[in-house]
């Protein structure tokens, strides 16, 4: 971004740009995040090529699922955030996939043992008993999940010091999977450098990734945003660290 762009202009850009779907193209040139080493999209594509029926939970705008080159005969996705549903349907129509609008806490609207493969990238929460219920015997659940304290540095820059993270620990996911009757066959973790080059990128990110600062609005958090803007101008890009884990389990 040009150095002369004002705080108010950057805030306005980040506050008005669309956040539908689950792509982050708007951040090009303004923020970067390292990718996990395991290549989630590649793993999903490989698993999809060998099954008859698959489900993608919390598909977002369908951006990751749309990359699958050889979809199974039956491919279904769910999405709980209403603005994402038409975006996902548009992205996934070429694959012949159905997108089902759901509510976040409701059981999955599918019969028992309906799928050979269930996948989920960055689910809001994982209902392990429901995943186990819809998997066929021998079926696989593959998920890339948000780890504990992800981009905590950014959360604290806006909110101040926070207590240690209590949720999203990989070991909790493993225990929940086993309690649901699944066998965990793979678990990997990664810490990823995340860099914000201007406050507009921060605002857009906080509007999209709503759990980073719950209840975020520009009006409510303007003083903290101003301090972070001044810090970026004085010290350079703001660096945080995203945390991810990959978990694979079998029925």
Automatic annotation (TrEMBL):
Stretches assigned to the Methyltransferase type domain: 55-142
Region forming the signal peptide: none
An MF annotation (GO) of this entry: S-adenosylmethionine-dependent methyltransferase activity
PANTHER family cross-referenced by the UniProt entry: METHYLTRANSFERASE (PTHR43460), METHYLTRANSFERASE TYPE 11 DOMAIN-CONTAINING PROTEIN (PTHR43460:SF1)
InterPro entries: 23S_rRNA_MeTrnsfrase_RlmA, Methyltransf_11, SAM-dependent_MTases_sf
Organism per entry: Micromonospora sediminimaris
Key word Transferase present: yes
Protein name: Methyltransferase type 11
GO BP terms: methylation
Keywords: Methyltransferase, Transferase
